[in-house]
Records
---
Amino acid sequence: MTLIKEQDYGTPASRSEKMVSLRIDGRTVTAREGTSIMRAAAEAGISIPKLCATDSQNAYGSCRLCLVQVEGRRGTPASCTTPVADGMDVLTQTPRLAALRKGVMELYISDHPLDCLTCASNGDCELQDMAGKVGLREVRYGFDGANHLKAEKDESNPYFTFDPAKCIVCSRCVRACQETQGTFALTLDGRGFASKIAAGMDDGFLASDCVSCGACVQACPTATLMEKAVIDHGQPEHSVLTTCAYCGVGCSFKADMQGETVVRMVPWKDGGANEGHSCVKGRFAWGYATHSDRVTTPMIRDTIHEPWRKVSWDEAIGFAATRLKAIQAQYGKNSIGGITSSRCTNEEVFVVQKMIRAAFGNNNVDTCARVCHSPTGYGLKQTFGTSAGTQDFRSVDQSDVLLVIGANPTDAHPVFGSRMKKRIRAGAKVIVIDPRRTDLVESPHIRASHHLQLRPGTNVAIVNALAHVIVTEGLVNRAFVEERCDPTEFARWEGFIADPRHSPEAVEAITGVPAAEVRGAARLYATGGNAAIYYGLGVTEHSQGSTMVMGMANLAMATGNIGREGVGVNPLRGQNNVQGSCDMGSFPHEFSGYRHVSDDTVRAMFEVVWGTALDPEPGLRIPNMFDASIGGSFRGLYVHGEDIAQSDPNTNHVAAALEAMECVIVQDLFLNETANYAHVFLPGTSFLEKDGTFTNAERRINRVRPAMRSQTGKDEWEVTCDLAAAMGYPMRYDSAAEIMDEIARLTPTFKGVSFERLDRDGSLQWPVNDAAPNGTPLMHVDGFVRGKGRFMLTEYVATEERASRFFPLLLTTGRILSQYNVGTQTRRTGNVAWHPEDILEIHPHDAEERGIRDGDLVSLASRKGATGLRAMISDRMPQGVVYTTFHHPVTGANVVTTENSDWATNCPEYKVTAVQVTLSNQTPQVSAAE
Ligand code: SF4
Ligand code: SF4
Ligand code: SF4
Ligand code: FES
């Protein structure tokens, strides 16, 4: 069982290779050079009292509780700030030290409420522990002097309280906010007795810049900063180690439990992706799992206009199978299909695609990755030979230049965003390519060297211009290219990209970015040391998404920025298991491990294990399913954990396609928008009930473990197996571990993966096979997966979506920190305190032209549709560009987005829509025929 409290070594580990030897309390101890005495002692099992030190932060040396005596040195140095040295002789327990420590504790306790028995921290309070440890028996100063006991509590944050009466001013919270989170929301105000912790301008946590990551709460040694859930429930009695189910960072957490009730989520220090940090979603926004809106009983109805009927599992499965079989009998084998979920585990996804291929008998399976990172799969496979990011997150610590394109990590991948900010504060340079001024362009202690604020839709023109500068200014890493890349393809590309039409000056009018900025950015990327590319949906969700991915791969190869720490090309995946759902064979043309369904050898392997003949023809992609539905040839759909009616583009078209079907099966936690068109509702399980694995953006396979029993009485993969069996294809597993065993047997990159290994080793990054038995943190180290790296020609082709007289603005969309995707989960948590509705960000000039003031309700209209929302005037956007999120169904922002899509993968062009914005009490001057 996982320990509730992890050991705190007091100061961070040293990375030095050099070992030193010393004596502590008469014992010979070895430690890495640079280690503090406190940590060296802790590693040897000797515990020194401490209050202001914690191993997630650099030593601060303020509380003076950790004093030690060092032979030959005067005084009593603090063990947290004193590094070990060869031959040192340290004493941690002497009468003199005991007296000093008691004195320190007396001072603290004389200004602290003595309500230990009723305090929420009782049993988990370092102050209480230290009082016990130093043997405090009296407080000679008494309790009548000046104190802070009447200081007012701040309960503004939905998840934690701040009770300054209990504060010992150790500054761990301030340092957590600075060093770990990088938000700088807290300060230590005043001096001496008047010192106190202030959030923002001392106007409370909710009104401050605090992003509610909880790092300060975790760091606080007392009950000053305290989770409200712990105040309500009391201290946990056991912990379950699991993985966050929100974004592609894949943070590991200890779910601290009382029975089957979650008391708090604590980010796990040994988590490979997060190393003890979290964001507001993973740490606090888990209440949706037990929200009263959850549906836990199967339901059916004959038509979508009737009310739902609650039925047994058997009846629901029987109803669904009968309908699907009838559809196939009438319209043919290919008239049904399914969509897998990137929120579900690898094991759940694997059985869904298996059911479709083996029980439905076709390859009509697609995944929500179609609408986010499918161009990543295509582009990286063409250039490098595999569809995945090249680095682990830790690699960024070795980067000198970060090139961040179409990504907003501080909002969408917050824990990795904090890690990036830490590296930038330590000296790395950052270049941001984004129409919007994100926090990586400018925020406390962060300033980008270059912000290429391009017009939406012109990514490829920019990446070509960067490459043009690198080629024409002699910045190509010839040695790397000669050794690692295909010479013919390189020569072809070099000639193509050197053409003056790609120069920054030539494309300035297209992109809107000054040529000098582009030249400066290209030089920095090529010559600034280890340069790493990180990108998001601002790259992929374009009509040239795949071209752009290949353009970035070209840049990395041309400059030799691939195949070692600190470099690479890294997609920041959206949902928790986007990487995994792609790996598991969710695309209509690929089995797990990205092998084409037409490959006879591969297919034969699956046919043997699955015991049935499989279709060699690729099936339908999501948009083709919708078109075929409207055309009448596609009649039944199984939608696993996705709300396509809200998340997919051109909502009206999606709705028409769903409405035309004869059997829509939705499996989800809640009756989402898609369920409005469903005939069968199969309740799903939350991550707190799941047993399985998620694979994050760095290919890290993490275990998900059940903290509570399934609220529906069944595992989700079990339901899929039941449906497959009812369709006539028996499919049975005894456990999720057994499904992983089958995945490993059929997927070369997962060959060495099993639950047993993951439980033993924590996590593994694929490929895990004979060549890499312990996994692969860095890809393409000695050679590309495809052999020689392949430069691809990346001609810029303007999107068909153009601004016009009627639709003069360009809309681009994104996420904000506190909400997630279509908001199904986060809208059912306290996170609504920060983003209760979608907001349209509009430049002051564009707003003024339209008579729009901050907070006005406006109409947002495109050639496809219109919606209404509130405007926020913001100069984060350039003039002519507006921005919104799609977290709230009431806005339904995808009503306005178009069906334009990536030429190679059909990934929708969410990031460019020509729109008009008007005050909503005015009639929008739009014409659908324009
Ligand atoms: S709030 Fe907690 S962490 Fe911050 S200074 Fe006070 S006691 Fe220390
Ligand atoms: S919750 Fe996070 S952002 Fe807010 S004050 Fe604490 S450390 Fe800073
Ligand atoms: S960064 Fe992502 S994975 Fe980590 S806690 Fe936040 S939402 Fe969860
Ligand atoms: S723990 Fe070392 S001075 Fe506070």
---
Amino acid sequence: MLSYRHGFHAGNHADVLKHFVLVRMLRHLLQKEKAFWFVDTHAGAAQYALNDSTALKNAEFETGIGRLWRARDLPPVLADYVAQVRSFNTATGTDPARLRRYPGSPQIAMQLARAQDRIRCFEKHTSEIRVLQKNLADDPRRATAVAGDGFELLASVLPPPSRRGLVLIDPSYEDKHDYRRVKQTLADALTRFATGSYAVWYPQVMRREAMLMPASLHLLPAADWLDVTLTVKVPSDDGYGLHGSGLFIINPPWTLAAELRDVMPWLVRTLGQDAAARFTLETSAAPARRPGAPGTAPALRRPAVRSPARSPAPVRAPSVPRRRVP
Ligand SMILES: C[S@@+](CC[C@H](N)C(=O)[O-])C[C@H]1O[C@@H](n2cnc3c(N)ncnc32)[C@H](O)[C@@H]1O
């Protein structure tokens, strides 16, 4: 029985990183006329109110999209993502100057995809899938949402008929087996659709599986990958809660590393909550380095030949949360 509901976290710093990169990846696919498929294995509800008791419980959006919404020096690359959030607020009839709603990944894809593109969503939570299906109901030819296990169902849509596609794998990690299943699912997906683009979201939390995850993803048989993390604060003393997140991307747009190098320092300054705020950027081959950017960690250079040499930081807290945010 799943209890995670994304409505509690919609628009937080992790959504900002994930959805900003999602917009960049969709924009890249839109450059060619040929249709693409967007597959969302863990789709959520697609649309979230930010003025209801769920979102307001911890008001996580205030330290996420709320800070970008009010920013006066938004970098152009991020402006495109914020424009999608504004357009969603406008389209739903609310005061466009006020941030009241937040678009999840299927909604962002709906806003950007063209008539020829397809959106395929999977969602296991029994009530979230109903909301998702309702939210996608206007355009059944373009978008469908299937109830079930996204890890298992992904194989059913690979490779997409057009052989162009982006798969977002964004589990809640409520189940600790999700960490292992992400890797297995990706390994299988690459045998079916090696040229596809994949984006995997993962949490920075004080649990062993989460800390081991990036290094294990780097060992997947993918020639071209990028791994970006945004840490917004020091881990809490009790080891609970999310202090940052990462996105592991296979076959990224060739422009993405440079865009991230430019914009991540701004995101660190804007979303950072204490002196531990930082970003890292690693790529499979080319160095992704911009030394001396304020408030950032130096990005790591990685050799083209894979090596499991880097080990993650030791686990600090043996008692760990079962959910992304308790
Ligand atoms: C982080 S949320 C998704 C957010 C969404 N991708 C977005 O960016 O707007 C994760 C979702 O995965 C769902 N979920 C958990 N386990 C799943 C599974 N095995 N298959 C499909 N969905 C699952 C949860 O119910 C939750 O709605």
